[in-house]
Design the sequence.
């Protein structure tokens, strides 16, 4: 394993997301989006952010690989790989809704060990380490440690949906539901103790790579809703088209209660 300076990783993540975020704030709510082949939206701001972050990684960590939403989807051979979501919540971004994020996940040998997610409109920045080499586990919001909630499901507790998971409401559901429009933020609300759980029906690898370590470091549980494991990613495979139906809950004891309620989302197109 090549040496890696975690303070450098954190400072790099902070600097590049602040720089990109400041520029995106100047343009959000004012740009038009077009539909990609998979139906998701993209703007010139997504592409600019993607390119800017990728170039910065190549300059600062030339020995690292990277995989990006708007660039290369093939997982590289390097031990260390960054996965970039240049704007998570592009629809919100184009409509002036202030829930969107810049998301960076750092993987070691195919598994995320560090995540950094910056939400410029909310002035919120999450980061976390989970089983990272030479670093203790921990999750943080604006550098303050965070943990998941300990309460049981109840009508006054929140659970976050994505737009493709509303079929779960055809049955009695034990919490109030919210729909935020950002896959990363849906899961981060669980990590930060805002919600008891979240479900995402069709997230891509760039939607989840950064939040995977943050959620678990905060005490949460991650459950894939399909039998194949998500990680480790495999060298040479393309990850542009594969969805990863996912359930996130505040603690592992809640999985038996919520899992039967959300299994239907993995059957959605």
Sequence:
């Amino acid at each position: 394993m090549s040496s890696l300076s975690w303070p450098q990783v954190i400072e790099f993540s902070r600097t590049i997301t602040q720089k990109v975020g400041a520029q995106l704030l100047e343009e959000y709510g004012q740009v038009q989006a077009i539909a990609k082949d998979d139906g998701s939206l993209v703007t010139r701001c997504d592409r600019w952010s993607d390119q800017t972050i990728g170039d910065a990684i190549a300059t600062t960590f030339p020995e690292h690989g990277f995989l990006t939403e708007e660039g290369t989807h093939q997982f590289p051979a390097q031990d260390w790989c960054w996965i970039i979501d240049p704007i998570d919540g592009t629809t919100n971004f184009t409509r002036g809704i202030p829930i969107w994020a810049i998301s960076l996940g750092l993987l070691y040998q195919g598994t995320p060990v560090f995540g950094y997610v910056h939400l410029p409109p909310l002035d919120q920045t999450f980061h976390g380490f989970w089983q990272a080499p030479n670093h203790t586990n921990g999750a943080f919001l604006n550098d303050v440690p965070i943990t998941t909630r300990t309460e049981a499901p109840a009508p006054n507790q929140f659970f976050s949906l994505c737009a493709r998971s509303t079929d779960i409401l055809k049955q009695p559901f034990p919490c109030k539901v919210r729909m935020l429009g950002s896959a990363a933020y849906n899961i981060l609300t669980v990590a930060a103790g805002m919600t008891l759980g979240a479900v995402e029906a069709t997230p891509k690898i760039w939607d989840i790579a950064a939040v995977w370590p943050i959620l678990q470091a905060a005490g949460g549980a991650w459950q894939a809703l399909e039998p194949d494991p998500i990680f480790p990613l495999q060298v040479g495979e393309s990850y542009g088209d594969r969805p990863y139906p996912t359930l996130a809950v505040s603690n592992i004891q809640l999985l038996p209660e919520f899992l039967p309620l959300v299994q239907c989302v993995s059957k959605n197109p």
